[in-house]
Amino acid sequence: MTTENRSMFVNNYTPALFGLSVEEYKRYPEVWRQIVRVERSEKYKEEIAFNAGLGLVPKKGEGDPITTDRRLAGPKKAWVHDTYALSGRITEEAIEDDQYGTMRDFARELGVSARETRHVIVAEPFNTGFVTTYHTAGDGVALFASNRAKLGGGTWSNLATASALSYSTLQNAILAFESQTDHRGKRIMQTPATLLVPPSLEYKALQLLESVGQPESANNDINATKRARPSLKLIVWPYLTSTTAWFLLGESVNSSVGLIHFERVGVQFGKEGDFMNGDAMFKTRFRNSIECNNSINMYGNAGA
Length: 304
Prior knowledge:
The chain is an alpha/beta fold and 304 residues long. It has a domain at 34-41 and 74-194 and 244-301. It is built from five helices and 13 strands. The strands form four sheets. A five-stranded mixed beta sheet has the order 1-5-12-11-2. The two termini are 45 Å apart.
């Protein structure tokens, strides 16, 4: 039975009951909006393609013809919006006899469920990003992989050798992130903006980013990471299912790289009464999609 009635909540109708506590916890704010690029969509799906630019300008000998080059077409990725919806029904009598107004809080509970669901949706690409059976980039490879083909030839990687978060592994990841070249071999000059970790790595990450001295050395050395990359922001996200995986993310504002969350329809709520039996019906609904065509500004480490 999916309809809430009086028999399910006997305590709610006891006049002598001093107070009633509902299942309410502090909910995390929409941290996911800091992790992915968020865009509105007015179509049933969105598509993004990327092209590789030109190569380096070659030397030209006297009297020789100018070398001709052309841009290279890359893959196209589609964002097909999914629909999410949940509803509930409460009998008219249950609402009438409720002593503490908890039946009327049903819409708020729908909001809690919707907020939680959106966290889980955005976290999924990170939680499954090391395998190709879930989210893949436009090249058909896992979001984090070491065998990505360049359009101009060769390969590139945004996957570190699985290792625990430490002073040395974080520095190596930053260096690898900043050493990336585009599909024609030109340097990108990108800098990581965010270190994304699960709660189990929060204190370790704080030591690595905030210590004045080198956190894993008895010598009187400076924390070079803090000095060289003071703007690297830490985000601790409990929706990451791995307790050891960690990620570096670049800026994705005004760019078509990285994870993009298209919102076709924002979270909506509806309430309506059933004329025939007096039940109150509540629902929430939203439509969105999250995909990645080019993961050049994402770098992952599956952890120890």
